[in-house]
Amino acid sequence: MKTVATLEPLTTRLLEIQRINSAASVLSWDQETYMPAGGGEARAEQIAVLQGIAHEKLVSQDVESLLSQWVDPATGQATDTAGDAWDEPSRSLLREVWRDFSRAKKLPSDFVVQLSRECSLAQQVWVEAKEKNQFTKFLPNLRTVLDLKREEARYLGYQGSPYNALLDVYEPGATIAGLQPVFAALKTRLVPLLQRITQSRVQINDGILHHSYDQTRQLEFGRLVLTAMGYDFERGRLDLSAHPFTTSFHPTDVRVTTRVHEQELQSCLFSCIHEGGHGLYDQGLDQQYFGTPLGDSVSLGIHESQSRLWENCVGRSRPFWRFFFPILQQTFRDQLHGITIEQFYGAINRVQPSLIRVEADELTYNLHIMLRFEIEQDLIEGKTQPEDLPAIWNQKMKEYLGIVPPTDAEGVLQDVHWSFGAFGYFPTYTLGNLYSIQFFEQAMRELPNLEDEIATGQLMGLRRWLEQKIHRWGRMFTPAHLAERVTGSTINPEPFLNYAEKKYGELYQL
Ligand code: ZN
Q: Could you tell me if 65 and 144 lie in one domain?
């Protein structure tokens, strides 16, 4: 049996590439946290140089000739030699390295440079267009980026729709055909559920979240929750940034960020828990495989499932607040005096159709994603022309959420994704939401005392379960295969829909 040790000449090179990418990530992290505003241009150049070197090393003759000894280019699978087969980690490693290598190799380097330049330009124009609420200002850049993304799909190759090639970048194996029934099921049940909620006689007031809360104390509380979750501060940090994110340089150095607003208690709190979920995944990756796909997270959808599981299944649950609410009340005595857990639970779970995706509740969030999924698919396929976007956006907002943005800045211009060419990224947010419920319900089945543990602030059992079942495997299995191993099922909207109907049916007395 041949093991990963046989692949040492390859893994040594991969490790070097990963170290270059990690260095680029440190620069990006600094850019989002501490870099002075004036450093932007120079920083972009520094990062581009490192990324260029990493890319060159990956598509090098050196790596190609090593891979060609071990992988069948027709299937992308490890080649078996009679009587001396590869073990499972080696097979997975070769399959995944081949995936990265062949994708990188398909894109001509002048195309990569052009795409990166146009995207960075489009992003700058988008910032301005959003500020001035001028969609037409962004339109020419959007056209250019769209053309390039279609070209990228042609280089990568696809079956059916060119959008499939782009989806696969973020969620290996995802296709329109696979996602459409998932979104159709969500639409059929979420839209009427939302209508019943908005017509319910139960009105939830979340005013208590908008008192004045000292920012330092908010951060202290966030840190306390992160520690309870098992986020290791010896191998991580919490800093501030405009948009919360998680980045990892190695499992021993995984950074999370949050933001803090004095009159929005939920903002810092839930972004800490959300990013903590991402952080636990990266801290839980197997160090011995660092640099190889086996030491890397499997997909954006699975990554998001980890953040959503902690944020929603744990952080927006009653058991969690049975333990943490008295502590929060101690921290903010004046603001939370006389407030019951039940009032607080209602406030943090209030459903309200809103214009902005990143501020949406866990229920309407998926409708925001569905709209983007439909639109970007039509854009890539050429069924929708970019100039018609604002009208289409507003019409779909009306249909799914019952509200129409008064401005494009609060509508079609709100997200950065399309400006930097991230078509196919949005669906992974909903995949994460659906997977999170599937995983959490499986954890509940396998850990019968889980609810009691959460209610007494003991979160390590869940953290260990996730590490054993998901984190430590890296890209050993495809996302669909991993979900099936853990829960017995691939992506399935049913558990989420049942959870949503039960939770909000009870909260809004439907
Ligand atoms: Zn996330």
A: yes
Q: Are 106 and 156 in contact (CB under 8 A)?
A: yes
Q: Please check whether residues 183 and 311 belong to one and the same domain.
A: yes
Q: Is residue 287 part of a domain?
A: yes
Point out the domain boundary residue: 157, 185, 218. Answer: 157
Residues 96, 187 within the same domain: no
Residue 249 tokens read as 């340089």
Shared domain check, 67 and 191:
no
Region of residue 484 (left: phi > 0; alpha: psi -120 to 50; beta: else) = alpha
What is the CA(277)–ligand 1 centre distance, in A? 8
Distance 3 CA to ligand 1 centre (A): 34
- Domain of residue 200: give its range: 176-507
- Could you tell me the distance, in angstroms and rounded to a whole number, from the CA of residue 196 to the centre of ligand 1? 28
User: Is the same domain home to 288 and 328?
Assistant: yes
DSSP states of 6-29: GGHHHHHHHHHHHHHHHHHHHHHH
131 among known catalytic residues: no
- Residues 297 and 149 reside in one and the same domain: no
Q: Is residue 168 part of a domain?
A: no
The Å distance, Cα 275 to ligand 1 centre, comes to 6
Last residue of a domain, one of 157, 191, 208: 157
Active-site annotation holder among 96, 152, 171, 275 = 275
In whole angstroms, give the CA distance from residue 356 to residue 362: 13
Query: Is residue 393, in this structure, part of any structural domain at all?
Result: yes
Beta 253-258 vs 246-250: how paired, if at all?
A: antiparallel
Centre of ligand 1 from the C-alpha of residue 461, in Å:
22
Ligand 1: distance of its center to the CA of 249 in Å? 17
Strands 236-240 vs 253-258: parallel, antiparallel or unpaired? parallel
Neighbours of ion ligand 1 (CB under 5 A): 304, 307
- Total number of domains constituting the chain: 2
Question: By C-alpha distance, which of 271, 266, 273 is closest to 230?
Answer: 273
pTM: 0.96
For residues 401 and 341, the answer to whether their CB atoms sit within 8 Å is no
Q: In tens digits, what is the pLDDT along the chain, a chain of 510 residues?
A: 899 999 999 999 999 999 999 999 999 999 889 999 888 888 888 988 898 899 999 999 999 999 999 999 999 999 987 778 999 999 999 999 999 999 999 998 889 888 888 888 898 899 899 999 999 999 999 999 999 999 999 999 999 999 999 999 999 999 999 999 999 999 999 999 999 999 999 999 999 999 999 999 999 999 999 999 999 999 999 999 988 999 999 999 999 999 999 999 999 999 999 999 999 999 999 999 999 999 999 999 999 999 999 999 999 999 999 999 999 999 999 999 999 999 999 999 999 999 999 889 999 999 999 999 999 999 999 999 999 999 999 999 999 999 999 999 999 999 999 998 999 999 999 999 999 999 999 999 999 999 999 999 999 999 999 999 999 999 999 999 999 999 999 999 999 999 999 999 999 999
247 assigned to some structural domain: yes
Taking residue 189's Cβ as centre, other Cβ atoms within 10 Å add up to: 17
Same domain for 209 and 66, yes or no, is no
- For residue 357, the domain's CATH number is 1.10.1370.30
* C-alpha 243 to ligand 1 mean position (Å): 11
359 & 472 share domain: yes
